[in-house]
Amino acid sequence: MAAEKNTSRRRFLLGGLGLGVAGVGALVLGWGVLPPRQRLHGSAPLPLQDGAVALNGWLAIQTDGTVILAMPRSEMGQGVHTALPMLVAEELDVPLASVRLIQAPMDKIFGNVAMLQDGLPFHPDDHGRVKALAQWTVAKAARELGVIVTGGSSSVKDGWGPMREAGASARAMLVSAAAALWQVPAAQCRTQDGEVLHPDGRRASYASLAQRAAAIDPGTPVLKLPRDFKLIGQPAPRRDTPSKVNGSARFGIDARPPGMLYAALHLPPRLGDTLSAFDAAPILAMPGVKKVLDLTPQLAQRSISCAAVVADTWWRAKQAAATLPTQWKAGPQANLSSAGVYAEFARLLDSEAGYAYHASGEVEGKAVQGMRQVSAEYRAPFLAHAAMEPVNCTAQVKNGKVMLWASTQAPGIAVDVAAKVAGVDAKDVSIEVLLLGGGFGRRLEVDMVAQAVAIALQCDGAPVQLVWTREQDTKHDMYRPAALARFAARLDEHGRIASWDNKSVSGSITHQFLQRNFGLPGAGPDKTTAEGEFDMPYEIANQRIAHVIADSAVPVGYWRSVGHSHNAFFKESFIDELAHAAGQDGVAFRRAMLAKHPRHLAVLDAAVAKAGTPPPGHAHGVALHQSFGSIVAQVAQVSVENGEIRVQRVVCAIDCGIAVNPNIIAQQMESAVLFGLSAALGGEITFKEGRVEQANFHDYPVLRMGQEPHVETIIIASAEHPEGVGEPGTPPIAPAVANAVFSLTGKRLRSLPLRLA
Fold this sequence. Notes:
Strand order of the largest sheet: 10-11-8-18-15-16-17
Largest sheet: 7 strands, mixed
Radius of gyration: 27 Å
Number of helices: 23
Helix content: 25-40%
Number of strands: 27
Strand content: 15-25%
Distance between the termini: 60 Å
């Protein structure tokens, strides 16, 4: 079947990506020397109605002048349904309000190239040929894969080229159409607000020119220079705000196809347990219950072992599923404990050298008189995603076709897994991607899609909505990995870092993700494990940063800012320790190591200057970190009240390249700070006898409104390529707070979450 062919091709290319990281030359041979796949014209026409005319694979013009834009990225509160249309509207010279979104079809031109390219484990300061070749090769492979996915703070970064080219190309076609109509040189025409204008007063709307323009070859698109931007760089209001305020916005859980049934799961009590038996009779006798199903045989590795109850309302399904009599076979994780995880981490750090992601100079040279040795160990726990919208998916299997309604970050992967579970061709799977009530990486996973399709297969063509409970989501997540890190540094007689040795250990997200979703065995290094450690900007001559991958019995997944989320805490806290040991101010200590990094220095200085002096009884803590291409510095104002850490104010400075929409950037910094602060002060998933000990927000707390600090954002002006925004504000907040706590109390907190007791 075509679905199997697509899967085989994708596996081959993903395998090639792995070779590209370790040995780029092998992947370059053959197809690698050919030009990369274009991203302007799709393989099939856009799904249009009402006489709209497509001008390329991304956009079309309706008869009333509305611009139809195919949107391949999911909106989960990060503002991409505003920022990405701004790119097209800028180049096309139309008002932002005239752009209407439709869901992009499953076409390779919409694949996320930047996200896969950013997975290469190169240092940001590396500008060599090997890196350039690897980036080119992986970008080319990513175009062939065409994976439609939202993540890695990559949406604007990835759309910056193709979306602007789509707008510029369409504009050139419309100008050429008007010039031909008027028999004048195209260079004499200009565009404004959806019209082509001529100096003699003639004007024509895009709508009137679209049909004629569609037959014109635009040539190579000519993009605007930043000095000519009228929309990019302006704080445009979020386009999704009105519908979220008036309640008309549709999230995944709002899907209501006619005749829909509801499903709830009965999940294993411990990690790795397998359902061995259940008694359906008493459940089938309950009001509204339609079916009781064992999903384990259908789902194999695509889901944990589980049973499902289908009913006429979700409450009835939930109540019935909760009381289903079941028997479980214990799995290999039956004795798993948090203490055991950290003990194994310590053993691995003692016995394994790890993979060195970055090394320079000599870190183990002979001790020199006057040098001071400083060492420390840090750790971070597993974390749940805890998105507000419960995990859900609605599926219908009827007449050999599958229909999905889902709030997903990975529609391409969702379609693939639905096809496999239903045993149909991928082209027979349709998906409506609805708004996400938070994603944070949890909705990169498609276990809920596999479960919903497996249930719908047995419901005689009726659509079925599967909804997890909050407790199920907390106890059966793909968690942010726990980690343990050790540092050893030497300070010379002037208080400068003479050597830096850092080794950490954690599970590998990428290994597990590839196995879960593509059936590929995990192998080789995984950048996400060491990002935020090996790629630091500080100018230290002698350094070695290594990581040991631990085989994780706990399922792990991508969590907002991924490895940076804990590695920034490790690195920036230890930098502060060294500053204290050297008898220096933490800011001055950092500044001295950034002489060749003016952008980092400017961000740090801006945050510190804006923060000013803390009021009496408070202290400032500072952290500087680069992630997803953006540089962020944060100053946290902290007090300790009745033994509890309170954060009153956070000043956040960011250099993310060209600021497409400053309003959204500020919102995302606020969001990221609060998300990271929730984890820093209370986030922790622990295990005892194979069970997760947390269940809901009473024991897995998120920041309440009364605990939220005032966040002030400074956006550094830049003409560089846009970089990530959704995640870079999260990593610096934990070390900034920890460093402030040390300044205030003299206690060095080396473990997350931060607790004084």
